Amino acid sequence: MRSRPRCTAKPPPLGYDFLGAFPDGPAGETVSLLRLMPYRLRVTDVGTLSRQKAPLTWP
């Protein structure tokens, strides 16, 4: 589990301990993975959120 130290080292709300939800680790029977395939990326910043400019979008 290479990613666990990275996830648990960050302070909340970024840090998340996966073993709380999956105590058996990645080999357990309750673990499931969901692969997301984005069809569009949209980048926003403060100017976009305040509606001063349009967001950058890649189809």
Low-confidence stretches: none
Radius of gyration: 17 Å
Question: Per DSSP, what share of the residues sits in E-state strands of 2 or more residues?
Answer: 5-15%
Number of E-type strands: 2
Mean pLDDT: 77
**What is the count of DSSP helices, taking H or I runs of 4+ residues?**
3
Helix content: 25-40%
Question: How would you write the strand order of the largest sheet?
Answer: 1-2
What is the end-to-end distance?
Answer: 33 Å
Per the principal axes of the C-alpha atoms, what is the gross shape? Answer: elongated
Give, in order, the helices and strands.
HHEHE
How would you characterize the largest beta sheet? 2 strands, antiparallel
How does the helix and strand content classify structurally? alpha+beta
Provide a descriptive summary of the structure in words:
By secondary structure, the chain is an alpha+beta fold. The chain has a domain at 1-29. It is 25% helix and 10% strand. The protein contains three helices and two strands; from the N terminus they run ααβαβ. The protein has helices at 3-9, 18-21, 46-49, and strands at residues 41-43, 56-58. It has a two-stranded antiparallel ribbon with strand order 1-2.
